[in-house]
Amino acid sequence: MQARHDTRGPDMRGRDARQCHTHSAKRHTHPVSVGGVAIGGTAPVAVQSMTNTSTADPAATLGQIALLAQAGCEIVRIAVPSAADLGGFEEIVAASPLPVIADIHFDHRLAVEAARRGAAKLRVNPGNIGDLAGVDAVIEAAGAAGIPIRIGVNAGSLAKEFADLDIPLAEKLAKSAVAFCEHFESRGFRDIVVSAKAASVPASVEAYRLLAGLVPYPLHIGITEAGTVQAGAVKSAVGLGILLAEGIGDTMRVSLTADPVEEVRVAWQVLAALDLRRNAPELISCPTCGRCGVDLISITREVERRLVGCRAGIKIAVMGCVVNGPGEARDADIGVAAGRGVGLLFAKGEPLRKVPEVEIVPALMAEIERFEEQHA
């Protein structure tokens, strides 16, 4: 965008942003609604992802959205790169089982039209959306449609007046986001979600810590361009885990160079690891050592495979030796503690029976199914 803001912005010099959150209580923010999904306020952290199919191909995109919904995605974002994609976008919105966000760059007119065609939310990038007249048109369109806007700042596309500042990247990101928030407020628009993403975990964490103390709006958290499944999952878990543990974050996307369903799975695993939300069983298994008396790696992989799609929030322990095995198995809803070629099954702390190694998986799954039926 052209010179439009006072880039001095909020004074962040010498500020320890970590003072904003010294405990895990969730930060209270101004709530917004995205197609009926609450973000901010007292709502739980919402999980979202983004399709990587062509928006001009509604059938392919809706097929991917269906898989995302099945995995637990609650909001989906779709790129609208050109006017030629608007027809497909409108079809997708009409048939999608999830609220659809229109992701807009470069051309504010696409955001205006997406709002008219049923978007549940708009995402605009302060670094490339255009001049303030265009921004104001987007604000007016969102206001008329009754939908929120995410101000999405990215390290790779910062507006020049912020990118050229001789300050840390986290402060550049925060200043850009705050300046845009102030403009939206001057137009009387406050249904805002804010993000400030970088590929750097430390820069992203610090930017969000700064924003948490500077704006009252929900924060969309993520580590952008995090990488492939394993590397990206690690970076995302570290960065998002820090923020969520500090009570920062109202909605999240794990950005992976992979099938977007993997993004949803990792997001839920991060939330579950912090005991914030669960949409699948918690599987506990030991790392194995020379005392292990069964092929625990194969057993655990097979249990994990069979649990795909299970939404019961139960705790399952698959343990391979006598050191921690009996204790962990007793503490779980359903567990097995293995010895030499056998496994002792537990349910709610009570030992049930011993089974040979080849029967551990089917016996364990049968007990899991029985437990689910009893607690349905």
Task: List descriptors.
alpha/beta, elongated
Describe the structure.
By secondary structure, the protein is α/β, with parallel strands linked by helices. Helices cover 39% and strands 18% of the residues. The protein contains twelve helices and 15 strands. It has helices at 58-71, 86-95, 108-116, 132-145, 160-163, 169-186, 201-214, 229-245, 260-273, 296-307, 325-331, 360-374; strands at residues 32-34, 37-39, 46-50, 75-79, 100-104, 121-124, 149-154, 192-197, 220-221, 251-252, 282-285, 315-319, 334-338, 342-347, 350-356. The strands form three sheets. The chain has an eight-stranded parallel β-sheet. Strands 11-12-13-14-15 form a five-stranded mixed β-sheet, sandwiched between helices. The protein is elongated. Mean pLDDT is 91; it is low at 1-10 and 12-23.
Gist of the model:
This protein is α/β, with parallel strands linked by helices and about 375 residues long. About 40% of the residues lie in helices and about 20% in strands.
How are the strands of the biggest sheet laid out side by side?
Answer: 8-7-6-5-4-3-10-9
Q: Which stretches of 5+ consecutive residues score pLDDT under 50?
A: 1-10, 12-23
* Rg from alpha-carbon coordinates: 23 Å
Shape: elongated
Structural class: alpha/beta
Helix segment tally? 12
Number of strands: 15
Taking the sheet with the most strands, its summary is:
8 strands, parallel
* C-alpha termini separation: 54 Å
> On the 0-100 scale, what is the average pLDDT?
91
Please state roughly what percent of the residues sit in beta strands, choosing from under 5%, 5-15%, 15-25%, 25-35%, 35-45% or over 45%.
15-25%
Task: Give the fraction of residues assigned to helices.
Answer: 25-40%
Element string (H = helix, E = strand):
EEEHEHEHEHEHHEHEHEHEHEHEEEH
